[in-house]
Amino acid sequence: MSAEPTDAVPAGDAPAADVAATEVPTFDDLGLRPELVRALSALGYEEPTPIQAESIPPLLAGRDLLGQAATGTGKTAAFALPLLERLHPGTDADAPVALVLVPTRELAMQVSEAIHRHGRELGARVLPIFGGQPIGRQLGALRRGVDVVVATPGRAIDHINRGTLPLDSVEVVVLDEADEMLDMGFAEDIEAILTETPPTRQTVLFSATMPARINAIAKRHLTDPVRIEIARPTSAAGDSPKVRQTAYLIPRSHKPAALGRILDVEAPTAAIVFCRTRLEVDELTETLNGRGYRAEALHGGMDQQQRDRVMGRLRSATADLLVATDVAARGLDIDQLTHVVNYDVPSAPEAYVHRIGRVGRAGREGVAITLAEPRQHRLLKNIERVTKQHISIDKVPSVADLRTRRMELTRATLEESILEGGLDQFRVVVETLADEYDVMEVALAAVKLAHESSGAAADEEEIPDVAHRPDRDDRGPKGRGSKKDRPERGARPPRRPSEGMTRLYVAAGRSFGIRPGDLVGAIAGETDLSGRDIGAIEIADRFSLVEVPEDHADQVIAAMKRTTLKGKKVLFRRERFTPE
Ligand code: AMP
Questions:
Q1: CATH number where 345 lies
Q2: Same structural domain for residues 195 and 266?
Q3: Ligand 1 centroid vs 53 CA: distance in angstroms?
Q4: Tens-digit pLDDT profile for the chain (580 aa)?
Q5: Does the CB atom of residue 349 touch ligand 1 within 6 A?
Q6: Distance (Å, whole) CA 136 – CA 329
Q7: Atom of ligand 1 nearest to the CA of 69
Q8: Whose CA is nearest to atom 13 of ligand 1?
Q9: N or C, which end of the chain is more exposed by having fewer CB within 10 Å?
Q10: How far does the centroid of ligand 1 lie from the alpha carbon of residue 426, in Å?
Q11: Domain range for 30
């Protein structure tokens, strides 16, 4: 951020000493109205993320803002909360007060859901409008009256041309993921929309990258904007502890299972699992306990006594996992900690550095594990850049890896038992069985029982191996349209689709103007899959390939029969895949 982060400590510093000195503002401090603070508390947010702490005060003061922030930093709430402050509950004004422009329909839905959640108590009426949805439904909602419109530029222009989107009362316009909108060819539409809104409006622009074209738009349409960007602290890498840093790319729905499996293989002595919200802490603790771990929750909603009890259990090894928010874990110093797990990519590199500084002390090797959704790859890159340390991306252990690991454990347990001795009392059992069966057979049955009684027989589902998709968040400075990022013309993805996924052939490619966002948008818009569920996408000249979860393939094919891509019916079918 442009200001020095207040709670960044060089990795390896004991955080205990800086607890009192930490001055992260609360949502109350930021000057938000009580209804909004209550909504955030209900969502389990404990404190603002850096982008929120930096953006909300100037936005509340009415300033224009130019912010560089990627997905996962909490940028949606950073603009949504100040925008909701502008609503006038109780009045019968029907024209929108805020207009948010986003590149894809998927994002339109996500952002409007977030604004709706934050503004529920205020009775905020939020309407997403995007192409592909019947316009009649949108017209009806606009006629009934809305406070906030979240639109893709193309559909916003349609409505403006029909005279169905009144913009005279708009007080704030947000351009979210502006670089992406430009890459998708929306520059002219954005210009046209902005000229339709009152010149007195507040303008907010968020972009993951800041190419010259974004600066040009900002120059034309923003007035004396506050600039918020992610600074590059130089000292963070300093005397870093020895920490093995690994990340896994996992679709959200598979995270609990993936975490369980990673923990099984890593077998930490004691670990902290960091979550973003209290709700996530509670849910994950329950899930982990259900899977046989001894996990304890720690969050800001607990009093000192409860916290002490939890810490006591961890120290006495009655618990081996602590599931915590950053706020609650601040100041904890746990000696035996071997692993830090980020259940989500932290919203700022400083938080990452702070978290992993808890392991790898005193020359011991620590392990930092980060579970990222495929679209958060960019945040990981940013952390690597800031910390100047490599985070290797690993594959989630497969069911076979897990079985091997569990077998090893059973073997080790049996060996321990042999070395321990005291087996004579069982000799009679083996001897009587040996009259009838081969001794090897008897041993195998005993191993099976030992293996099963360790809980190792649990049936596991394969977790899809999600390839990182360069089209989403790891865009080069030129954005996702940049040639560098594109696959080779006609390039083929690896021959086999990821586990659990089916590859669909789409009879339209680059020469038809298809971009990955079009496929994600169409599939997410027409089926109950979200963008996160969609796997690797390859765009060749004349066709495209897209991976979708196996159990949704038929639904996607059927849904795509009913809709159009770029105004035309396009065939979707299973790829006719010939194994080597
Ligand atoms: P965004 O960068 O807006 O896509 O947000 C990323 C994720 O962070 C979303 O799942 C939000 O629900 C979550 N989030 C946003 N702000 C906070 C906060 N202050 N504390 C915890 N989680 C947050």
A1: 3.40.50.300
A2: no
A3: 13
A4: 333 333 333 333 333 333 333 577 899 999 999 999 999 999 999 999 999 999 999 999 999 999 998 777 889 999 999 999 999 877 777 899 999 999 888 789 889 999 999 999 999 999 999 887 788 888 988 999 999 999 999 999 999 999 999 999 999 999 999 988 998 889 999 999 999 999 999 999 999 888 899 999 999 999 999 999 864 333 334 445 578 999 999 988 889 889 988 888 888 888 999 999 999 999 999 988 887 788 999 988 888 788 888 888 888 878 889 999 988 887 676 777 889 999 999 988 888 988 888 887 655 678 999 999 988 888 899 899 888 889 999 888 887 877 887 788 888 889 888 988 899 999 999 999 999 999 999 999 999 998 887 655 454 667 776 654 443 333 333 333 333 333 333 333 345 677 788 888 888 887 778 888 888 888 888 888 887 788 888 877 777 888 899 889 999 998 888 888 887 888 888 876 544 3
A5: no
A6: 50
A7: 2
A8: 74
A9: C
A10: 58
A11: 9-229
* Residue 248 shares a structural domain with residue 113: no
Strand-pairing partners, residue 297, are 323
206 lines ligand 1 (CB under 6 A): no
Q: For ligand 1, is residue 77 a contact (CB within 6 Å)?
A: yes
Q: Is the CB of 73 under 6 A from ligand 1?
A: yes
Query: 325 CB under 6 A from ligand 1?
Result: no
Is 27 touching ligand 1 by the criterion CB < 6 Å? no
Q: Judge if 351 and 378 occupy the same domain.
A: yes
Asked if 282 and 302 touch (Cβ cutoff 8 Å), the reply is no
- Closest protein CA for atom 14 of ligand 1: 74
Give yes or no for a contact between 482 and 388, defined as CB atoms under 8 angstroms apart. no
Q: Which residue has the tokens 């949108």?
A: 138
Ligand 1 nearest atom to the CA of residue 114, by list position: 12
Please report where in the chains the tokens 């912010």 appear, as a residue.
Answer: 67
Measuring CA to CA, which residue among 565, 556, 564, 561 is closest to residue 533?
A: 556
- The rounded distance, in Å, linking the Cα atoms of 434 and 428 is 10
- With contact defined as beta carbons under 8 Å apart, do 102 and 108 qualify? yes
Cβ pair 338, 271 in contact under 8 A: yes
- Is residue 45 lining ligand 1, measured as CB closer than 6 Å? yes
Same domain, 221 and 260: no
Residue 46 Cα: closest atom of ligand 1: 20
SS3 label, residue 410: helix
As a whole number of angstroms, the distance between CA 102 and CA 153 comes to 7
Residue 514, domain CATH: 3.30.70.330
Residue ending a domain, choose from 175, 198, 229? 229
Structural domain contains residue 420: no
Ligand 1 midpoint to CA 475 (Å): 21
Residues 211 and 254 in one domain: no
Interatomic CA distance for residues 398 and 396, integer angstroms? 6
Q: Are residues 224 and 254 in the same domain?
A: no
Output the pLDDT for position 578.
41
Nearest CA to ligand 1 atom 11: 74
Whether 53 and 168 share a structural domain: yes
Tell me which residue of 511, 519, 508 sits closest to 568, measured CA to CA. Answer: 508
Answer whether 76 contacts ligand 1 (Cβ < 6 A).
yes
Given ligand 1 and candidates 277, 344, 530, which is best to mutate, with the most ligand atoms within 8 Å of its CB? 277
480 ligand 1 Cβ < 6 A = no
pLDDT at 105: 82
Instruction: Confirm whether 525 is domain-assigned.
Output: yes
In a domain, 185, yes or no: yes
Same domain? For 249 and 219 the reply is no
CA of 236 to the centre of ligand 1 (A): 24
Q: Is residue 163 a part of any domain in this protein?
A: yes
Task: Please tell me if the CB atom of residue 346 comes closer than 6 angstroms to any atom of ligand 1.
Answer: no
Split into its structural domains, the chain has a count of: 3
Q: Whose CA is nearest to atom 5 of ligand 1?
A: 74
